[in-house]
Amino acid sequence: MDKNYLETIRNSKPAQFGILIFIFLILYFLIPQSENNYLWRLPSVLKGIPLAINNVIFNALYEWFPLKVWDPVFEMYEEKAAFREFTKAVSQGLLFLITVVRELLLGGDKIIDVFVSDSWLKENDWLSWPALPWTATTVGAFLLGYQLNGIRLGLLGGIGALYISVFGNYVPSIQTLSFVLITTPICFVLGLSFGIWGYLDKKVETALQPVLNVMQTMPQFAYLVPIIALFGLGDHAGSIATIIIATPPMIRNTILGLKRISPEVVEAGLMSGCTKPQLLFKVLIPAARRDILNGVNTVIMQCLAMVVIASFVGAKGLGLNLKIALNSLKIGKAAEAGLCIVIIAVILDRFTKAWADKQKDYFENLTFFQRYKLLIIFAISVVIFSIIAFISGGYFDKINYLYVIPIEKGLTIAHYIDGAVDWVWETFFYSLNSFNKFLLTQVLGPMKHAYLGMPVIATFTLAMGAAYIVGNARTALIVGGMLLFIALSEYWDRALITMYMGSFAVIMASLNGIILGSIFGRTERGGRILLSFCDFFETFPSFVYLIPVIFLFNITDTSVLIAAIVYATVPATRYTVWGLKSVPLSLHEAGTMSGVSAFQRWTNIEIPIAFPTVMLGVNQTVVFSLQMVILGALIGTEDLGQIIFGALSRTKDGAGVALTLGIFVSLIAICVDVIVRNWAEERKKALGLA
Amino acid sequence: MSPTISCDSVYKIFGANANKLLADSNGSVDAKQFQDAGCIVGVNNASFDVEKGEMLVVMGLSGSGKSTLLRCISRLTDATAGKILVDGEDICLMNNKQLVELRREKMGMVFQNFALLPHKTVIENIAFPLQVKGVSTENSMYKALEMVELVGLKGRENYFPRELSGGQQQRVGIARSLAVEPDIWFLDEPFSALDPLIRKEMQDEFLRLQGVLNKTIMFVTHDFDEALRLADRIAIMKDGIIEQLDTPGNIVLNPATDYVKKFTEDVPREKVLKIESIMDPKDTNASDNLKVSKDDIIESVAEKILNSKEIIKVIDPKDSSEVGSINPSKVIKVLFGG
Asked: In the 8-state DSSP scheme, what is residue A454?
């Protein structure tokens, strides 16, 4: 071989990848599959980690730093662990707030109970806060939408609330809403504070990055068991799980928004004589208003995406109803509850977006009545509807339909949906089943087998080699280190199954997204329509995707994978459209004048320029796919997710197992992220876009 | 009276070991050497005074350190070494509270890209420095309305910055910087982001304002023509060093370095030089028919002088006393060279 040839290989990435895959295949087929061969499987020396984590948690909860606490019932001092008292206080505080909002809207006597004695409360039936009639809530939703962005948004709010009420989902919907109304402000305050801190102090930002990465890539299930251990069961536990999931995007949005402010604006603030607090509250935060409010929007969407998962730790509301319906395979009921969640998500999404875009008119000169017109109308309607509901109480027998329509008395289309599902089953049973069988036996089965037959040395060679080619030795070591952590545990095989499902979903979703994006994203109009579809699908909480597929493909890998592919196609599509949009017009013109065909334009101009952006989309696809794959444990798969899910019922070492495996999934996602991001950065540099 | 701004050996060096390197160099800083050590020299030994009511234009190409110098004097960035006196007080020694006080009372600044607060209307942007100072809403709005009129934006008080053209936005920036009635006015390339025609219009507007307000001004620009048009004195910077600091006339007539010469070569002298710079001593033969001021720009009076075909008296506009004479042949020499 002459020298030039070697030089070419050294500089050609495809050639390097070719060699890497060649080595991988040799290792794959040469290493014998034997439990004693460390090249095949590493020994699980880190077996003890879950138990160790567990011990730390229990030690903190029951032994560490005991306080002497006066017990008024037994009239003596008791030793209680400080940390446990702290988690108790947090739990009770949260629960109290959620209950307040709930009772304000749904009525009850729990809050009044705080102020009066138990016995007095029991003797006096009238001592109960009245529920807000659903009619008044509907008017309120209409008025709020109208105030934010005119009649159309008003109608969206009003009709949404009307549907929810008439179909008997008023109570669970308000329970879910109260959960969102308490959780969102907490996420907002936490996210804003950490975001500002990170913006002001570079070191804090650097420290936050990896923590946020892990928090955002960890499957939601993994948090549940530790939360049960620390905070117990109930709405507050669901709220805490949601805060952990929803705060990171708020932090990121805040930092992003603050960083986007031009340095001149900051200087202008300083030269105007701002003190530091004035600069923060009068210049920085208002100037970053839009990004910060978009963060709030993301938080609300995350809250709604969490309602089903939160129901596993005792949160009430639509999520719980949906979970129960799914468990008993009542597709119609599940679909109805799911639809209510989607409606609430869409309404809150549009409302917060309108709020973010709304500019205040500082110079309108209004009288008191003009300014508070809508609020006054709302107050009057509450009074009127309450009176009507109260009077009609005598007219209705037992159930007062003008207050709340209970779920079993509401309209329902569940049996139609069930009928439709049955019809689909009966009509397409054969074809669906054979497709399912074909996919399982011909594609997924062999693929799973191939992944499980991979010697550990081959996996490491492939991952670290790819990291080295797109990055450098450091990248390879980071990836290798993270994988080693998993390989030394007893869950490597499960991780391989997660990887198989994840990679299948990622590849299919990326292909779908790139193709869809390329077909429709080439024209301004097509791109806009496609992006609004993405917006729409993104407001669906992740588990909603599982409902239809289970009924088409039963509880198999196929169902989970199809849900994951559909779910993860959204970001891939979105980023492809963005990438194509980023191709400068002058390049298109240069291409046209060079006489390219449509296909040549796509392969030679659009894809290369859009590539770095598309890769960021693929990155998102990985996170989305893994989330759905793990969520698949809800309906039964056999990867890491299943054990995390199973840990919910393991009290002894559940918390440790769930956290450890959660981190494993997060590490897999971060490994892919490191490789893909490096690749995208390198392409960016090569194109002069960095 | 002491100068309004006085800089003494001001250095600004970016980089981790800036202080140590500067201490080792004993005041003679070599940009190249510092760069190899991982530091970038922004301002290199700048010493100069700006008198009350004077307009100093700092001119230089991008990366010359002109904006950095301005930011050292407004203390948006801290100078690495040197003394910067504003009305006799060293601002480098001021604490944060004193600094806020100084900016609220004495300083105003205009930025290249306007730097308007996007969430505030025209009038709120202009009133902003007053409001952070604690002026009541009513008074600050009243004052801001005055400023709106001064910069000719009446009727657009309630517009948001995004609804205005570049020229209009910069008028808001100017009004905001003047709202607290500062003594010292910093302008950082205020017209660079504007179209040529608008730029000319804004320069005229700026001269008109300065005629009324008579502030002490530091004006940064990369446009040599703009500097000539506006300046009482010009400081030309290159690689952090002030190459020459002098009146426009002297810079054009006697460029101190080759670098400065490159800028002056193509400048039409009659547009820059005053009669003063080419006049002869008093001449008894001078005609009484026509008198010109020693501060007149040659171009503006050339036609008159050449038409008279006689030696003409030059007077001092302050007291109308005769200070010299001008021969038409001198004017021809400036106009046509040779």
From this structure: -
Element (H, E) at A439: none
Q: For residue A60, what are its two tokens?
A: 């903190």
Instruction: Examine the pLDDT at A363 and tell me if it is beyond 60.
Output: no
Contacts of A283 in chain B (CB under 8 A): 117
Residue A431 has pLDDT above 90, yes or no: no
Lowest-pLDDT range of A85-99, A336-350, A509-523, B273-287? B273-287
A265 touches chain B (CB under 8 A): yes
Q: Are A476 and A467 in contact (CB under 8 A)?
A: yes
Q: At which of B227, B244, B267 does a domain end? A: B267
Mean pLDDT of the region B203-219: 89
pLDDT of residue A110: 74
- For residue B122, the distance in angstroms to the closest alpha carbon of chain A comes to 11
Out of B96, B103, B119, name the one closest to residue A287 (CB).
Answer: B119
ipTM computed for the complex: 0.84
Residue type, A77: Y
Nearest residue of chain B to residue A266 (CA atoms): B115
Residue type, B247: T
CB pairs under 8 A between A and B: 72
Q: Which of A258, A254, A255 has its CA nearest to residue A294? A: A254
* H-assigned helices in A151-169: 151-166
What is residue A3's predicted lDDT score, i.e. its pLDDT?
Answer: 66
* A404-422 average pLDDT score: 79
DSSP label at residue A130 = P
Which domain does B317 fall in, by range? 271-336
Instruction: Please compute the mean of the pLDDT values over residues A7-24 and round it to a whole number.
Output: 83
- Predicted confidence (pLDDT) at residue A359 exceeds the cutoff of 70: no
CA distance A167 to A147: 26
Residue A271 domain-assigned (yes or no) = yes
> Is pLDDT larger for residue A544 or for residue A677?
A677
Sequence-distant (6+) residues with CB within 8 A of B203 are B191, B226, B229, B230
The single-letter DSSP state of residue B313 is E
Residue A80 above 90 pLDDT?
no
The residue among A261, A265, A267, A272 with the most chain B CBs within 10 A of its CB, best to mutate, is A272
Same domain, residue pair B187 and B317: no
In angstroms, what separates the C-alpha of A367 from chain B's closest C-alpha?
A: 19
Domain extent at residue A529: 433-453+491-687
Range B106-122 average pLDDT: 90
Does A202 touch chain B if contact means CB atoms closer than 8 Å? no
Residues of A in contact with B128 (CB under 8 A): 272, 282
Mean pLDDT within A554-563 = 84
DSSP annotation of B112 = T
* B310 and B161 part of one domain: no
- Dist. CA A304–CA A324, nearest whole Å: 17
Which residues, other chains included, contact A315 with Cβ-Cβ below 8 Å and sequence gap of 6+? A179, A234, A235, A237, A238, A239, A307
Q: Any idea what the CATH number is for the domain that residue B60 is in?
A: 3.40.50.300
A678 and A548 assigned to the same domain: yes
Kindly tell me if the per-residue pLDDT of A115 is higher than 60.
Answer: yes
Mutation target to probe the A interface, by most A beta carbons within 10 A, among B96, B119, B163 is: B119
Using CA coordinates, name the residue in chain B closest to A281. B132
Nearest CA in chain B to A364: B158
In a domain, B13, yes or no: no
Work out how many domains chain B is built from and give that number: 2
**A205 and A266 part of one domain:** yes
How far away is chain B from the Cα of A502, in angstroms, using its nearest Cα?
44
Residue A617 pLDDT greater than 70, yes or no: yes
Domain shared by B327 and B183, yes or no: no
**Range from A16-20, A67-71, A637-641 that averages highest in pLDDT:** A16-20
CA distance A265 to chain B (A): 4
Kindly determine whether residue B115 and residue A274, on different chains, have CB atoms separated by under 8 Å: no
Q: What is the pLDDT of residues B147-170, one digit of tens each?
A: 998 888 888 888 889 889 988 999
| A272:B103 CB<8 A | yes
